[in-house]
Amino acid sequence: xxxxxxxxxxxxxxxxxxxxxxxxxxxxxxxxxxxxxxxxxxxxxxxxxxxxxxxxxxxxxxxxxxxxxxxxxxxxxxxxxxxxxxxxxxxxxxxxxxxxxxxxxxxxxxxxxxxxxxxxxxxxxxxxxxxxxxxxxxxxxxxxxxxxxxxxxxxxxxxxxxxxxxxxxxxxxxxxxxxxxxxxxxxxxxxxxxxxxxxxxxxxxxxxxxxxxxxxxxxxxxxxxxxxxxxxxxxxxxxxxxxxxxxxxxxxxxxxxxxxxxxxxxxxxxxxxxxxxxxxxxxxxxxxxxxxxxxxxxxxxxxxxxxxxxxxxxxxxxxxxxxxxxxxxxxxxxxxxxxxxxxxxxxxxxxxxxxxxxxxxxxxxxxxxxxxxxxxxxxxxxxxxxxxxxxxxxxxxxxxxxxxxxxxxxxxxxxxxxxxxxxxxxxxxxxxxxxxxxxxxxxxxxxxxxxxxxxxxxxxxxxxxxxxxxxxxxxxxxxxxxxxxxxxxxxxxxxxxxxxxxxxxxxxxxxxxxxxxxxxxxxxxxxxxxxxxxxxxxxxxxxxxxxxxxxxxxxxxxxxxxxxxxxxxxxxxxxxxxxxxxxxxxxxxxxxxxxxxxxxxxxxxxxxxxxxxxxxxxxxxxxxxxxxxxxxxxxxxxxxxxxxxxxxxxxxxxxxxxxxxxxxxxxxxxxxxxxxxxxxxxxxxxxxxxxxxxxxxxxxxxxxxxxxxxxxxxxxxxxxxxxxxxxxxxxxx
Length: 733
Hints:
Layout: E1 14-21, E2 40-41, H1 45-53, H2 60-73, H3 95-103, E3 123-127, E4 133-134, E5 141-145, H4 153-161, H5 165-187, H6 205-210, H7 213-219, E6 223-225, H8 234-245, H9 255-264, H10 280-287, H11 298-302, H12 313-330, E7 336-340, H13 346-353, H14 370-380, E8 383-387, H15 393-407, H16 428-444, E9 461-465, H17 471-483, E10 491-495, H18 497-500, E11 510-519, E12 522-525, E13 544-546, E14 552-554, E15 556-558, E16 564-567, H19 572-577, E17 585-589, E18 592-593, H20 599-605, H21 612-629, H22 635-645, H23 659-664, H24 666-669, H25 673-679, H26 688-699, H27 703-714, H28 718-725
Parallel strand pairs: 6-10, 7-8, 8-9, 9-10
Antiparallel strand pairs: 1-5, 1-11, 2-4, 3-5, 3-17, 11-12, 13-14, 15-16, 17-18
Helix pairs in contact: 5-8, 5-17, 5-21, 8-9, 13-22, 15-17, 16-21, 17-21, 22-25, 27-28
């Protein structure tokens, strides 16, 4: 302690600590071998600075409260004696240092020390620009005390600022979601529906990197943020959802995210003349960069129907249908409306309610049919979303799309453009791509050379998959969509806990490392190198330089594989005067924000500019799994789903089914599903109880088997997935 008889020659020093992500784990592991490995999006430091560090944050009242708390909290109950009377240890809290901060008198001279700001933290933070794309091991930001007395302060602040791991990991995850959907967009040769603006519309790697408005706008709702209820706190929701927006997405139901950005990321860049659209508020108000849409939730549908056992099944279903019509009718002027449809029986909703021509009579929903509504919205260029909220997306998505393709032909594009080559003729991926496309044509009975990736008209009718969507599942869902003959843009994805909560500090191996001390004009390198390996840190204070390849690296010498051979930390002279080209720049010092980063520059830095590795992984995934995934839209699988649909909305109560009438309908008769249903023992003579029982017993995996199948699919072990199916047709009812 300063002034103690034990430290009569106390000199103090400058302590440098840095924040880094050391590697990729779990769903992020493939990124380690993708290019230079620079895929981490740095984001969130500005929030913590503004929320907790700005201005006079050290006060006499806080010091008094902290001293009392620490004296009790740090008391060792095993020790007796005058210094610990009553179980209070008053030797542990550095009150003198905190009082010096509060007064600004760091040298105990009776007057404030030159440069000191009373009540402010004597700390400097140097950081990369937020939105930077960074490889593991690089210093994202550094903390240094600005007066030698407070050498302990960087370590004290570590616990708070290491929490930047969370927004950084979510931002990285959101960007990887985007890349995955983009890769399958390339493979299914997606075309933007935005034909009224200049720019390229085809989803190619080059056009995605160029980010012309038609391609950009088409993607803004590809992933929706549903995470508010699935996170641990309101602050978590704000940070996580704010991080989601860095990937260029714009559809979130987590209001806390956009509200946080309005408070903490609202600056205009003075270097650009303060262009108004640089701030989040201006982008929000002028470009609508954050939005939600009218959307039904389950109770707004289920509350229309009488759940009592004696209720009439026909009226029960009519009430659900009226709820559907009412919901969309109420919000008919809105560009987008989302209707959750699995309150009772998603298969009945898709097969019988959504395509129904029945006009609802009277009441708020009167005068319209669902099909008339869909046609009107398609003609007006409005977006209508069907939301299933149960089942396994890898199985149910191609089934839902197949049924809609049969029941709503007017919602689908005709005359699709022929496929173009995606790779150079000598690139082995082109042959692999052509082979998988031919396998899809064969499975769907399409002529050679046809474009097998069916799509909705103008992208204005879509399924919204909001259940079970995470970074480690979305790729297989996309592969299943393509394998069964649909373009990936037939589906919007929504993610809650999978986006904002299914991660932790170890996902990117985040750490805070004390790396250097500067004492008496000398630099002392500090590092960690455990014999067990894996957590070695950079020894010394790292400047971060951008190489000729555009990749950010801590200064040092590297081998051809990018592995550091020798660190080159900052000398004492460089610590005082800086290093030319160091990308780490001061953003905060002594209570003052030095750089207020404009929101648009963060989004711009985080843009996807390279997809080659992601496309290669997506193509390999599709090739390996297509044959297995195609079973989910086989005639047998669709026959089972139509049998479930025939049980109606009130499927859980015993009544005759609609199977005979449905099989006679032209849309279903054309699929030839009656023969498949009969082969499976699913006949019109069975009542709803008997039919559901037969499906569950004979054709649906039990939960344990379904879990094994899904695990095998995730591991690309298709032989194990086939074995786990045990001859069953479906994973879930």
